[in-house]
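call fold target=UDP-glucose 4-epimerase
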Amino acid sequence: MTWLVTGGAGYIGAHVVRALLDSDLSAVVLDDLSSGHREFVPAHVPFVRGSILDGALLARTFDEHGVTGVIHVAGFKYAGVSVQRPLHTYEQNVTGTATLLAAMQDRGVDRIVFSSSAAVYGTPDVDLVTESTPKNPQSPYGESKLIGEWLLADQGVAAGLRHTSLRYFNVVGSGDPSIYDTSPHNLFPLVFDALLDGRTPQINGDDYPTPDGTNVRDYLHVADLAVSHVAAARRLDAGEPLDAAYNLGSGDGVSVAQIMAAIARVTGIEFTPIIAPRRAGDPPRIVASGETAARDLDWRMRHTLDQMVSSAWQARMAAGGAS
């Protein structure tokens, strides 16, 4: 069985590739390197540079590498930027997914694990998000991910596509010192950038109705996330039933202040965060239950907060502290 990992040269996708290899499954990577890095892909893993918008390239990749399933991680993932670039977001995430599904149908590839997002829920007013929590995406990014899930469901009805979608919030850490988060928008890289530049990191608001006044979110170790992507792929290979979607959630969450304290503790760089104004639309708490994924996808939080921070910091330092 050979799995195509779209976006497999990115931070999450590269960890999925390694999890596949650790499970003795074959992988091939397709990535346009718009945000991924060629060096994140192991040298012995076949690499195809190109876009999921290129249906002919997808068809050749399926044929040349004997692809039997897809783990679809590629996409434009910046929710905030998507508000300014909605057409680009829809092209990459909706048109791209439709093109991928068309190529799969044409080549008889009938199984897919979709990297969705907890952004499909928007800002739900519940203590714990479950798979049945109403969907109310509040950015083109979140909307595009929900449409992607609809596309999979429709193909399931029309063509017998076997599929599942994995929804999650904040992905951190590193499972391999050669891979680190290079996003210009994520919390860990932003804090690391500030510390390496001699600046003081900031917290956006400390007057929320939470135990320490700062936002509470799920923070998930990327290697744990990758394990569940592969568990889903294995179940699809075995013809075992899967739900249409799963939340990969911590069940309790971590506050931004706790993150800052852990970063100071692990790096040994003492700092007191600057308290900046709240960001508009930032809810106090969004945390998801991972109970259903624990039942079916070997999902669990295998890393402590300090381990998440330490692995991310070590990978960043291994890269020379570069941005």
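return ok
The longest strand covers residues 26-31. Residues 2-170+219-247 form a domain with the Rossmann fold fold (CATH 3.40.50.720).
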